[in-house]
Amino acid sequence: MKRLIAVALGVVVLSGCASSGNMALQKESETSIQAKIKEGVTTKAQVKSNFGSPDTVNFTDGGKEIWKYGFAKLRINGTTFIPFYGMFHNGTHGTKKELTILFNGDVVEKYNMSESAVETKSGWAD
Q: CA-CA distance, 46 to 118, in Å (whole number)?
């Protein structure tokens, strides 16, 4: 019985989560972004003060700037820690957030905030 409790406790401790990307997006939602970014009003400096430097910067054919921010929070699936079974069925699950902003000069022209569920599978049977 003690061994079963020790194994269960080990699984709980090891099944943590990992976060990556722009930590400023961690607690943001579509609604909270609407309060911080106004099309035709918000400037690059304001965006940078709210979210920091973008993860990537691209340009349209017309020369407009596109800033992208991303954040992901993943948890390891519990099946990963089951002896033998975990070799065949393991992976992660969580959420991913992406903020894309199109600038016309120094001002936000359009933006999009999206949040989606993500899942990875890396077991031999997956």
A: 30
